[in-house]
Amino acid sequence: MRKRILAGNWKMYKTAEEAKSFMEEVLSKVPVSENVEVVICPPSLYLSELAQLTKDSSVGIGAQTMHDVKEGAFTGEISSAMLSNSGVNYVILGHSERRQYFNESDESVNRKVHAAFEYDLTPIVCVGESLEERENGKTGDKVAGQVKKAFEGISQDLAPKAVIAYEPIWAIGTGKTATAEDANEVCGAIRTTIGDLYDEKIAGEIRIQYGGSVKPDNIEELLSMQHIDGALVGGASLEPKSFLKLVEACAHE
Ligand SMILES: O=C(CO)COP(=O)(O)O
């Protein structure tokens, strides 16, 4: 059985006080369950403090992006070594907003997956198609291509430790969710791609999240699907109340 993984991607929201008070409330109420791993990905400025605050809890902390080399003259960037050293456990890589606004390419995502594993971070690799690609029947090719490139050179031992997030770009922040069946079909195709790259066992082990307008009222249907092992959530991860409802849904059998 794959353990579900629910990750909140705060994007560029919350003041320092808001971040701290969210975390204190969530830590006091979050159900601890064998069924779900819970992760919060705050703006990088708050990573150290929140990692410290959650150190002895069941909540993990993730970065929203990072650079792919250990150190160097890259003004404004942070590295996987720095994240790991600050108590961060996960990193979102290749989010469509990073690809769109910060020119992140499949090649750089691949370098970052290597860098994440080098410093024991769990990469959450985002893939997904635009509306135009979906309408032209290109979803399968696009997503398979992104997965293949992201995992290039990643060993059999490490591959199943990664998490893949399928986020159709047209469903992010729009209130439009892919139907659970459509999301499941693409997540199943991602699993097949992993099976082709590695083997059936690894394909069966790797966890695949869905992301894009996930809310407390649609998560259960998504989770009931065979290939969906959790969610990567933007908007609904910003309030403790809705975030806790999402955790509870994942904690259920
Ligand atoms: O981009 C997302 C998570 O990474 C999804 O955002 P929303 O849940 O706000 O649609």
TrEMBL record:
Single biological process term from Gene Ontology: glycerol catabolic process
Domain of life: Bacteria
Subcellular localization(s) per the UniProt record: Cytoplasm
Top-level EC class: isomerase
Active site (catalytic residues): 95 (electrophile), 167 (proton acceptor)
The protein's annotated pathway: Carbohydrate degradation; glycolysis; D-glyceraldehyde 3-phosphate from glycerone phosphate: step 1/1; Carbohydrate biosynthesis; gluconeogenesis
Keyword vocabulary terms for this entry: Cytoplasm, Gluconeogenesis, Glycolysis, Isomerase
Binding site for substrate: 9-11, 173, 213, 234-235
Chief subcellular location: cytoplasm
Pfam family, one: TIM
Its EC number(s): 5.3.1.1
InterPro entries: Aldolase_TIM, TIM_sf, TrioseP_Isoase_bac/euk, Triosephosphate_isomerase, Triosephosphate_isomerase_AS
Annotated GO CC locations: cytosol
UniProt family annotation: Belongs to the triosephosphate isomerase family.
UniProt function note: Involved in the gluconeogenesis. Catalyzes stereospecifically the conversion of dihydroxyacetone phosphate (DHAP) to D-glyceraldehyde-3-phosphate (G3P).
Subunit and partners: Homodimer.
Name recorded for this polypeptide: Triosephosphate isomerase
Source organism per UniProt: Sporosarcina limicola
Record gene name: tpiA
